């Protein structure tokens, strides 16, 4: 992720990652009380553009707010700093990882001190490009009454790690997690869509991370006349889908081959997922031909 010439932003200064000292007594390490984001910048025909930068930084600030972490940077400052960081790293296409860590405090009340680190590196599609073989996880997504599932809190990701370890150890590519009622929720770090009888479905908000990519995909569907509905569905319904795909900033749009070794019947190349994969690339590269709006 970094080398001698890498630059990170840390508490007001640009530094080499090796010069960054993170507090070993800090609450983020001990208790998982930190907040992060996953953002991408793309080299577009209009120059390097951080895709949906404001939405990502709003979600970062929301996470700090719910955890009571004092964090005073504005969205505008964060966006400006991130563009500066990309230039310092000579990166045009990049994955960007802002992280707020809470200060040293062994009590279980949020520390009054916060640190900001922003890192970036060149990173291809996180889950690759080939169709994924997915396993239903024995781990459920956290109950939204036990935490803020819509915030990217560092500690929540132990759930994603358990699910991913389980799926990969069993020879699968990724995990699909259910919510506490047994409905399909999401992947460890991406949202899920299924196609059935010419329509797309994605779990409604409440028990999932409401992904920014998910939102973009739904907007593209609306523009392109692809029917899409937010609705809870069970794993049995999912296994009867014609096709499925995941969406996320790191993963972008990636198709599924199978769930628990049940192969999705529709040739992925002929599905909405394949079409959306292309349209999403056009969108992030600012090359999408907007459809004329009909009344
Ligand atoms: N679900 C989870 C659990 C995630 O960690 C992510 C990545 N933030 C997503 C979904 C996708 O969100 P986004 O499209 O905003 O990257």
Keywords:
7 helices, globular, nine-stranded mixed sheet, Class-IV_PLP-Dep_Aminotrnsfr, 295 residues, amino-acid biosynthesis, 2 domains, binds 4'-deoxy-4'-aminopyridoxal-5'-phosphate, D-amino Acid Aminotransferase, Chain A, domain 2, D-amino Acid Aminotransferase, Chain A, domain 1, pyridoxal phosphate, alpha+beta, Aminotransferase-like
What does this structure look like?
With 295 residues, the chain is α+β, with helices and mostly antiparallel strands. The protein has two domains: 8-121, D-amino Acid Aminotransferase, Chain A, domain 1, CATH 3.30.470.10; 132-284, D-amino Acid Aminotransferase, Chain A, domain 2, CATH 3.20.10. It has seven helices and 16 strands. The chain has helices at 27-31, 53-67, 75-88, 157-169, 212-224, 235-239, 272-284; strands at residues 8-10, 13-15, 34-36, 39-44, 47-50, 94-102, 114-121, 132-136, 174-178, 184-187, 191-196, 199-202, 228-230, 243-248, 252-259, 262-263. Strands 8, 9, 10, 11, 12, 13, 14, 15 and 16 form a nine-stranded mixed β-sheet that branches. Strands 1, 2, 3, 4, 5, 6 and 7 form a seven-stranded antiparallel β-sheet that branches. Helix 2 (53-67) packs across helix 3 (75-88). The chain is globular. The mean pLDDT is 96. 4'-deoxy-4'-aminopyridoxal-5'-phosphate binds at residues 38, 152, 186, 189-191, 209, 211-214, 247-249.
């Amino acid at each position: 992720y970094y080398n001698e010439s890498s630059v990170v932003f840390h508490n007001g200064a640009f530094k080499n990652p090796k010069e960054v000292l993170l507090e070993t007594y800090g609450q983020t390490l001990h208790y998982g009380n930190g907040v992060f984001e996953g953002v991408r910048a793309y080299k577009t025909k209009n120059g390097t553009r951080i895709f949906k930068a404001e939405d990502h930084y709003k979600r970062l600030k929301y996470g700090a707010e719910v955890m009571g972490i004092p964090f005073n940077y504005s969205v505008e400052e964060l966006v400006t700093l991130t563009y500066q960081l990309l230039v310092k790293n000579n990166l045009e296409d990049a994955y960007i990882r802002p992280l707020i860590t809470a200060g040293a405090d062994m009590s279980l009340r949020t520390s009054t001190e916060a640190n900001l680190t922003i890192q970036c590196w060149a990173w291809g599609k996180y889950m690759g490009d080939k169709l994924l073989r997915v396993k239903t996880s024995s781990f459920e997504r956290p109950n939204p009454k036990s935490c803020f599932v819509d915030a990217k809190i560092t500690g929540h990701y132990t759930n994603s790690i358990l699910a991913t370890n389980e799926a990969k150890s069993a020879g699968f590519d990724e995990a699909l997690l259910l919510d506490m009622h047994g409905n399909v929720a999401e992947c460890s770090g991406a949202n899920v869509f299924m196609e059935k009888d010419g329509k797309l479905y994605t779990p409604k908000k409440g028990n999932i991370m409401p992904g920014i990519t998910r939102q973009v995909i739904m907007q593209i569907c609306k523009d392109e006349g692809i029917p899409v509905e937010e609705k809870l569905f069970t794993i049995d319904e999912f296994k009867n889908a014609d096709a499925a795909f995941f969406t996320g900033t790191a993963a972008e749009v990636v198709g599924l081959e199978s769930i628990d070794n049940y192969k999705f019947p529709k040739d992925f190349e002929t599905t909405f997922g394949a079409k959306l994969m292309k349209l999403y690339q056009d969108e992030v590269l600012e090359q999408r031909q907007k459809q004329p709006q009909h009344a």
